[in-house]
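Thread amino acids onto this structure.
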């Protein structure tokens, strides 16, 4: 399982092949981005990143994983 704190730092990418390791709240988040891999691998054509901690982000909106009542690292049912 991906540690949400590490992923939220913006320096840790999760490959397309491991996308099932991301918490469900990440897929509702506007900070989730993807970037194509420099080398084309069939099972991992791109990586997901969280840009919440990036200094050039355009919004200060709190992401779902930090919203009040959310428990980081625990996937939400839904």
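Threaded sequence (78 positions):
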């Amino acid at each position: 399982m991906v540690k949400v704190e590490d992923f939220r730092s913006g320096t840790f990418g999760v490959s397309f092949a491991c996308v099932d390791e991301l918490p469900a709240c990440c897929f509702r988040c506007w900070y989730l981005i993807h970037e194509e891999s420099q080398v084309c691998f069939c099972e991992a054509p791109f990586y997901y990143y969280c840009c919440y901690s990036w200094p050039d982000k355009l919004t200060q909106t709190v992401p779902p994983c930090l919203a009040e009542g959310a428990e980081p690292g625990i996937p939400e049912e839904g």
